[in-house]
Specification:
The structure is a single chain. The protein is mostly helical. It has 3 helices and 2 strands. The protein has one domain: Winged helix-like DNA-binding domain superfamily/Winged helix DNA-binding domain (Arc Repressor Mutant, subunit A). The chain is globular.
Length: about 80
């Protein structure tokens, strides 16, 4: 599993939103994206519901999540 601190579009501050990983510059937890997608929302709907989050941030988070699932390659 990758370390979310490596994703430049998120941040964590233990004093904000119970220390959850947030989309940088917002109070929107990264987990809210995955919860909404699991419930059938589209990325466009998520962006509409959370106007402080940018498409670039969502794409970076999704790319990061996918890359963390890729198997390690053995040389």
């Amino acid at each position: 599993m990758k370390d979310w601190s490596e994703c430049l579009e998120v941040e964590r501050n233990l004093g904000r939103v119970s220390g959850a990983w947030l989309f940088r510059g917002t109070r929107v937890p990264v987990g809210a994206l995955f919860e909404n997608l699991e419930d059938g929302a589209t990325v466009d709907e998520f962006l509409e519901w959370f106007p402080g989050v940018t498409r670039r941030q969502v794409e970076a988070v999704l790319d990061f999540a996918v890359s963390s699932l890729e198997p390690l390659r053995v040389a």
